[in-house]
Amino acid sequence: MIKYLIAAFVLFLTIPAQAEDRWISIPPAPPMPEAASSGTVNVNGIDMYHAIYGDADGTPILLIHGGLAHGDIWAAQVADLMQDHTVIVADTRGHGRSTNDGSEYTYARLAADYLALLDQIGVDRVHLVGWSDGANIGYSISQTNPERLASHFAHAGNITLDGVDPSVETNEVFGTYVGMMAGDYAEMSPTPDGFENFLGAVAKMWGSSKPGGPDALKSVTVPTLVVQSEFDEAILMDHAKMIAEIMPSADFLVLEDVSHFASFQAADEYTDAIRNFIEP
């Protein structure tokens, strides 16, 4: 898979901008608002970056980004949600400003990192908003530590390898995303020249590690909104529907006229969807 992703990145450098449909482009995220606190904590042998926004009472919201990304991609959502919620973002192991200790990437390991982070900052329970790999991390926590989740907004996750659309490997929009994250990695990472190795390691996880499977999710009772984009380049619609159907406490939502990168393409609508779910 790695060779196809690198090819898609090269293609990204040569394609012209297109703006006819919002789902075929990825606008940059705005700057992050000022955090109430931020820094790194040592969890499971790594230094994990996190930031906290707002100081509202009630259950905090934890936003977990997708593969190759970092917490700052949530800027638009944070700016809105922090007005009346405490919002936590972090950089997953090896992503953004967080380090890795050479361990292989697996969803179980990444989930354990987030649980350890919550322990370190003294948070017992969260509304988890997960995008892509973030949703997969959420599915893992839903199985192992459901008491830590008040709810799970699960956008574009997959629980089996056949949930991935094989055309993603040569998709131009996905290649654009890889290129954007390569630039961010060079600016943010403690190992700024290591993107190609990082990409290979994450792609290996994409091709092998999944958070359980259908049988594992049948007993998950965490209130879950399975969210799928109408034009998702990476995850198949039928796979998302299957996840929603097998989980006893799940509902299903389709985000219209957007792709895998809906939080960039329709930031306000995406935030409204989060609010509509966690604020019944």
Gist of the model:
GO terms for molecular function: triacylglycerol lipase activity. With 280 residues, the chain is of the alpha/beta class.
Which range best describes the helical content: under 10%, 10-25%, 25-40%, 40-55%, 55-70% or over 70%?
25-40%
Number of strands: 8
Q: In this structure, how is the largest beta sheet organized?
A: 8 strands, mixed
> With helices defined by DSSP (H or I, 4 residues minimum), what is the helix count?
10
Task: Find the structural class using helix and strand composition.
Answer: alpha/beta
C-alpha end-to-end distance: 41 Å
Strand content: 15-25%
Please mark out the parts with pLDDT under 50 across 5 or more consecutive residues, or reply none.
1-19
Q: Could you spell the SSE succession in H and E letters?
A: HEEEHEHEHEHHHEHEHH
**Radius of gyration, CA atoms, in whole angstroms:** 17 Å
Task: State the strand order across the main sheet.
Answer: 1-2-4-3-5-6-7-8
Described by the principal axes of the CA atoms, the overall outline is globular
Explain this structure to me?
This is AB hydrolase-1 domain-containing protein. Residues 60-178 form the AB hydrolase-1 domain. By secondary structure, the chain is α/β, with parallel strands linked by helices. The chain has helices at residues 2-12, 75-81, 107-120, 133-144, 172-188, 195-206, 214-217, 237-246, 262-265, 267-278, and strands at 37-43, 46-53, 61-64, 87-90, 126-131, 149-155, 224-229, 250-255. Strands 1-2-4-3-5-6-7-8 form an 8-stranded mixed beta sheet, sandwiched between helices. α1 (2-12) packs across α5 and α3 packs across α4 (133-144). The longest helix has 17 residues, at 172-188. Mean pLDDT is 94; it is low at 1-19.
